[in-house]
Structures are given as C-alpha cells and as structure tokens.
C-alpha cells in the first residue's frame, strides 16, 4: 500500500479497498459531503488510513510511515466490522 501510494499515487483505491470499505473511510474524513461515485486515489486513502493511526498530515510531515498505516488499518478494520454489524441489524 505504501509503495503504490508513493509510486502510483493516482491509482484507484479499489486496488486495496472494496466499495463498502472506501465509502466508510470517505465518510469518516468528509462527514458533511455526499459520497462520490468514483473512489479516491491511493495517495488519499493512504493518508486517511495513516491519520486514523495517529499521523498528523501537516504540510512538513512528509509521507506516512508503516507504523501509522498499520495502526490505521487496525482501526479501519474495526470501523468496517461495526458498519457491517449495523447494516445486518438495521437492514
């Protein structure tokens, strides 16, 4: 994920996340926006995932590291599981 986001940043997020997963991530970081039809880029989802893991994404911070991405992926997995449970209960 880190390599792809750095070497091919405009690649579609569908390379790593399915449709349901990227929409949850988008909604987390854009709470007042309508979910777009096209998925975000790899660079954008990598930054969002790293932010879930504690990366601050300030102008001078550079690219997120593996630790922030790993922590963010664990949090994203919990968010996805919660959303699936709600979807199963509420329909």
Automatic annotation (TrEMBL):
Residues 4-88 form the Transposase Tn5 dimerisation domain. InterPro entries: RNaseH-like_sf, Transposase_Tn5, Transposase_Tn5-like_C. Gene3D superfamilies: Transferase Inhibitor Protein From Tn5, Chain. This is Transposase Tn5 dimerisation domain-containing protein. It comes from Candidatus Scalindua arabica.
């Amino acid at each position: 994920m880190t390599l792809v986001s750095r070497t091919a940043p405009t690649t579609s997020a569908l390379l790593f996340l399915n449709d349901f997963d990227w929409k949850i991530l988008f909604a987390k970081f854009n709470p007042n926006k309508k979910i777009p039809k096209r998925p975000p880029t790899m660079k954008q989802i990598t930054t969002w995932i790293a932010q879930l893991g504690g990366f601050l994404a300030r102008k001078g911070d550079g690219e997120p590291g593996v630790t922030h991405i790993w922590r963010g992926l664990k949090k994203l997995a919990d968010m996805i599981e919660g959303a699936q449970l709600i979807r199963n209960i509420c329909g």
